[in-house]
């Protein structure tokens, strides 16, 4: 489960290989001028699947951001996965952000639920409950519940989750990936203190979203 962060996510290797092969083939047959757009596409695919290591804050009550992107919601909302009212913080990822997901806290996985759904623009609020998504519910050693939800977007068509019920995740540990534009919703106990604001750019693991 501990992903070694090899800079390029393993989910991207087949895509990079295919596009690079096509670029090489066109380059060999017709020259660089014809192949140039495909080389640009190859560069885009490589940057999309980059997966750099990030510093992990050690503050005991910190909830870390599970993904790169921009904060689009900080509000009180119903957490349908843990059946409670909660502080909800949502992060929208565009195609230029890193798309691996990291655990926001140290905790034990109590629930993993996948829901098929639509593919609305992930920046819209309705995407949280209507798009394809996968939720994990974590319990910290202090008994606090944190829910992290991977939400597919307008272009995304695959949500990948590698953890299961009973697994123990460390903060910053990689547990999933969403391909080509998406969103992550985090539900926290009421009374948690947000450390980010709407519109703020955030980074996976290194940005503190809130304090429990």
What is the count of DSSP helices, taking H or I runs of 4+ residues? 3
Which CATH C-level class of the largest domain is it? Mainly Beta
**Major sheet attributes:** 8 strands, antiparallel
N-to-C CA distance: 25 Å
Number of spatially distinct domains: 2
Q: Tell me the Rg in angstroms.
A: 18 Å
- The share of residues in extended strands comes to 35-45%
Number of strands: 16
| Silhouette | elongated
Task: Describe the 3D structure.
The strands form 4 sheets. An 8-stranded antiparallel β-sheet has the order 11-7-8-9-13-5-4-15. The chain has a 3-stranded antiparallel β-sheet with strand order 3-16-14, with no helix packed on it. The chain has a 3-stranded antiparallel β-sheet with strand order 6-12-10, with no helix packed on it. With 212 residues, it is an alpha+beta fold. It starts with 6 loop residues before the first strand and ends with a strand. Helix 1 (13-30) runs antiparallel to helix 2 (32-48). It has 3 helices and 16 strands. The chain has helices spanning 13-30, 32-48, 127-130; strands spanning 7-8, 50-51, 62-64, 69-79, 84-93, 100-102, 107-115, 133-139, 145-152, 159-161, 168-169, 174-178, 182-189, 193-194, 201-202, 208-211. A hairpin with a 4-residue loop joins strand 4 (69-79) and strand 5 (84-93). It folds into 2 domains: 7-51; 62-211, Glucose Permease (Domain IIA) (Distorted Sandwich), CATH 2.70.70.10. The model has no long low-confidence stretch (mean pLDDT 89). The protein is elongated and about 60 Å long.
